[in-house]
Amino acid sequence: MGKESRFRWDWLPLIAPWRATDSRSNPYLPLDTMGHSSEAEDEKLDSKHDFVAVATSEVDTAAELAAGDHGPLDPAEALRIRKKIDLHILPLMCILYWCGCPQWLVFHYYNCATGFNSWIRLLSGPLLIREATHLTTNQYNWLGTIFYLSYLAFEFPQNLALQRFPVGKWMSLNISIWAVALCAHAACKNFAGLFVVRLILGMCEGSITAGFMIVSSMFYTRTEQTLRVGYWFLMNGTAQIITGFISFGTLHIKTGEFEPWQWLMIITGIITLLAALAFWFLFPDSPTNAWFLTSAERAIAVRRLKENQTGVENKHFKKDQMIEALLDPKTWLFALFSALDNVPNSLTNQRQIIVSSFGFTPLQTTLLGCVDGVIEIVTIWTGVSIAARIPDSRAYVGALYMVPNVLGVFLVNFLPWENKIGLLFSVWITGVGTTGFVLSLAWVSSVTAGHTKRITTNAIMLSAYCIGNSAGPFMWQSQYRPRNHVPWIIIGICYACCMAILLIIRVMLSRENKRRDREPLDETYEDVYIERVGKDGEVEKVKVDKEFLDLTDRQNREYRYVL
Fold first, then answer.
1. CB 288 within 8 A of CB 298
2. What angle in degrees, to the nearest 10, is found between the helix axes of 208-219 and 75-100?
3. Which is more confidently placed, 220 or 138?
4. How many angstroms separate the CA atoms of 383 and 396, rounded?
5. What's the confidence (pLDDT) of residue 118?
6. DSSP labels for 132-185?
7. Which of 110-114, 148-152, 192-196, 542-546 is least confident?
8. For residues 375-402, b (16+ Cβ closer than 10 Å) or e, as one string?
9. How far is residue 117's CA from residue 205's CA, in Å, rounded to a whole number?
10. Closest CA to 39 of 30, 47, 31, 28
11. What is the pTM of this model?
């Protein structure tokens, strides 16, 4: 086989292992030459080429499963595997997302509403909690701010941990800590205690959405990701409906000094802890080791993703990919979209107060809040379904679904104050645009290749989300009530800018696709081989497709962006 030190089974030539004079020519040694070279041939090649070898840690974790010639993929078999994956991971993802939603209802039924991910929000008037813990208005507002500051501070470390450690296990650990902190709310008697548990909640939440984005990209094709992200995200709306009634029921729990909101914290904390245990034992970390798939099925699950050209994952941090993410314009366009789209998200924390100002009773206001959940479910489901059915329509669908938001802002500002029903419907339709943010979460994962680049981009986008949510509440000032013209105008401007950003991203990516279509074929990564021990015990060399080399979307010139 030639020089044994060159071709150890755990080494793989990846980055220009054979440097030819023409960088566009094929720089890799063909399989038949590698497999039958003699000592003399090796020495002759060494005199002509500069050999560079790197460990298999440099490539995708699924490279070995995908390597070699498996023949064409049977569509029926691929569909069967996808359904099996759906059955085993989607329910767990949806349950976890739903488990997060009841937590904020302790504040919701005291005139507070949910925002992104529906985790606990403390931004608008749960009077009983404030009285029980002796909070001043300033302290109470800080409890809302510290959540996002903690989320922001820990977002990048959380993404690094999601790359370094098994995804399912890391999320389960965070969910467990989060559940304990949730229960601990019931024991808090002052600002300091609530401040600590809120900080812990923000720290742990940074792993959930980021982890779900990674999992969706590891198990599903780019078209499938759009639907799956929508499915687990719309659990927010489901929770608004179901837990709206649950929260009303807890108001009737009478146990002496232990108040209803404390019981809700204990109950939902226990439910969340059970979800964490289920995650630990049942949620797979990757399609390469999914417990519910056989070895052959794992290979099919990985090969299904070849069209993504993003691989599955790589457990090693690559500084060059992080730098590429920081220098990529689309990273910051998605971040700007995320920040601007979540400034209006502060409206969700004011919605109950706004609706009650129209003259509705507290009970009516609580029940009318369920309509927000229905709107979110319907709009997200229809939006992601349309985007998945119509090729390259993500930007158009996202922008289109924000038109009702702008219309709602316009009506809220100009309808007569006496027209309570019209104002109520105007507020309701400002929730339609949530679909745009859901599509952006799926889209950013679908147009970013290279695992380190992807986790860096996700961290930047979700950090921008925190910034938007942190800034939004400050525009709701008492001098603007009751019409709140200034906040509503800011919200309308943000939505208009978000529509423009989505279309700009689409134009930019479309032009890049056309530019690559005009380029000559890039064969830089065409002939890459890995050695492994075959069934007969002999060392064999098999080709690894570039889709599983953990290349970034810029390195892989055959990569085409979905629009």
1. yes
2. 170
3. 220
4. 10
5. 34
6. HHT--HHHHHHHHHHHHHHHHHHHHHHHHHHHHS-HHHHHHHHHHHHHHHHHHG
7. 110-114
8. bbbebbbebbebbbeeeebbbbbbbbbb
9. 9
10. 47
11. 0.80
| Other beta carbons less than 10 A from residue 359's beta carbon | 12
Q: Are 191 and 138 in contact (CB under 8 A)?
A: no
Least confident of 219-228, 243-252, 281-290, 348-357: 243-252
Residue 3 in tokens: 């020089």
Q: pLDDT, tens digit, for every residue of 334-354?
A: 999 999 998 888 777 677 778
Burial class (CB in 10 A: 0-12, 13-18, 19+), 254: exposed
Using DSSP, state whether 483 is helix, strand or coil: coil
The token pair at 169 is 């296990």
Highest average pLDDT, of 119-123, 212-216, 299-303, comes from: 212-216
Amino acid identity at 77: E
Q: Which residue in 276, 59, 318, 290 sits closest to 170, CA to CA?
A: 276
Query: Rounded CA gap, 372 and 501, in Å?
Result: 26
503 in Cβ contact with 380 (< 8 Å): no
d(CA 421, CA 427): 10
- Residue 108 confidence (pLDDT) above 80: no
Distance CA 84, CA 509 (A): 33
